Prior knowledge:
alpha/beta; Rossmann fold; two-stranded antiparallel ribbon; single chain
Amino acid sequence: MPSDLTEVPTDELMKEIQRRLDCNTKEEKRVILIGPPGCGKGTQSPRIKYEHCLCHLATGDMLRAAVAAKTPLGLEAKKAMESGALVSDEIVIGLIEEATKQPECSKGFILDGFPRTVVQAKKLDEMLAKRGQGIDKVLNFVVPDQLLVERVTGRWVHAGSGRSYHEKFAPPKVAGVDDVTGEPLMKRKDDNAETLKARLGAFHSQTAPVIEHYAAKVVALKADRPQDEVAASIQAALGSK
């Protein structure tokens, strides 16, 4: 929202005020999203965030932001990356802990991209337990691998905005061209069948134990259905408050 509120139409301003008032009555929720590339998490996250007044924590984005801002944890992460080492779980947990103290996370969070292993899940649980908190739900986006290959290999992206298209499911008005700017679309280098199949293999082997770790809190979503049907299943899993 612009800093100069005189630029904001009154009806939009009132809707936002009402939304924030409604947020005060929402129950706290801490939610993990698990799903392979192309499963639809990116589509559903904004809906969940808005409906339940949660903050969205994508660990990759958080790492890049911390490095760019040169925070203490960001500097540690940059040192690890420059040396060719993996960023430690402790650094990522530290970033999550810092982020969840922000006002926008007061009603809880959606965690996307973490934890990827049981070790990470246990460290996350320990951090939250120190604050008397825990994970409430784990939404497992289930899509057949073959459909994921079709989804990802048919994807085209506008580099400047990140707008995504699909040659079969959501084609641009003109083939190969962004609807808004008219600029050419591109394919991400990882959006090919060979790379995706390797990523899917790693995903299944790593995350199956995480799903087992949170078994009592996992809701399996049939995520190959239309977006609104998936959203309805998520709403049923998380409740209306």
